[in-house]
Amino acid sequence: MSDYILSKDYFVKVIEDLITLVDQRKEYYTELDSQIGDGDHGINLEIGFREVNKNLDEWKKLNVRDFYNNVGKALLDKVGGSSGPLYGSFFMKFGLPIKSKGPDEGATFEEFIEMMDKGVAIIQKRGKSTKGEKTMLDTFIPALETLRSEYEAGTPGKEAMEKAVEAGKEGLEFTRNIVATKGRAMRLGERAIGHLDPGAASAAEFLEVFYKDMP
Amino acid sequence: MAKIGVVLVSHSELIATGLRDLVNEMNDGSVPVVAAGGADGGRIGTSAIKIQEAIESIEDCDHILIYADLGSSILSAETALDLVDEDLAEKCTMVDCPIVEGALAGVIMAAGSGDVETAIQASEEARGALKLQ
Questions:
Q1: CA atoms within a 13 Å half-sphere pointing along the CA-CB vector of B29
Q2: What percent of chain A has pLDDT over 90?
Q3: Which residue on chain A is closest to B45 by alpha carbon?
């Protein structure tokens, strides 16, 4: 299945759809965050993606690597909370494994897996965290592991991503049952149990966009 | 004497600029102090880009000490260190201490001694400083 190519248009559409998603879901993310955090996850993301939207027409002319670098930098600069450096670094690293240089070139599915890998790795490094700490990594790590193992076992690209999204959602549900050992929610101890992690929730919906936009 | 610079990172732009003004009261002018507080538009938060620019504005220093307040200020400062040139990042140290007392002690010692280890140690000693006895 190495001939499964994700086009430049795919990578641009993902960002366009993430802008729409964040705008539609900002109240939900903020509501989750107000239960166990400082209640700004949705509004912070919305401010970040609004900045991305403002520059989108200009950035679309760039190759995928530079396009995602600009998206990441805008989030680093504008978001404000922890999701700024985390998602910002994710998108900045996401474009790096892509080997094609032209402004109209996309990526192979193998490259896409490496892109996800680089993005998730920087979140782990930045947050000095792994799964089981009630963070976005509880979504990202199982999703990435599933994406890789399914694809290596011969599952076609889009189907492998579908399974990855399901694994991410299971990881998200798992955050309901655990205490937080990272971020502001760690001060709540047992009181955090029963609540989804807002970062894990946005991450699960972000991954779903990556899946749904696949041809 | 080595030239030591300081970057102050807070969620609040006012805390960062206020702390800069406070530490400069004890600074003979030999230690450049740059405030990198708040998110874009004066909102509460931090910006890795703003911190990157603050570090780059004093890149002629031999050492740069970074003081950050809480949570995402640490994340954003570490992200900024990935964004600057490697040579510049190597000159930077994030100092683990209470930001007000630590930065004040660090600037006083940096100005007085020009020795970065002495300044860091003075800042770290502020971790256990008792005020009411």
A1: 0
A2: 89
A3: A80
Please tell me the distance in Å from B76's CA to the nearest CA on chain A: 6
Count the domains in chain B: 1
**C-beta atoms of B47 and A76 within 8 A:** yes
pLDDT tens digits along A173-194: 999 999 999 887 888 889 999 9
- Give the best residue of A77, A83, A136 to mutate against chain B (max B CB count within 10 A): A77
Instruction: Provide the residue range defining the domain that includes B27.
Output: 4-128
Q: What is the structure's pLDDT at A2?
A: 60
Residue B133 lies in a domain: no
Q: What is the pLDDT of residue A178?
A: 94
Kindly state the tokens that stand for A123: 């979140």
CB contact under 8 A, A89 and B45: no
Residue ranges and CATH numbers for the domains of chain A are 5-212 (1.25.40.340)
Q: What's B87's domain CATH number? A: 3.40.50.510
Longest Cα pair distance anywhere in chain A, in angstroms? Answer: 51
Whole-Å CA distances, A26 to A13, A33, A44, A48, A88: 19, 10, 9, 12, 17
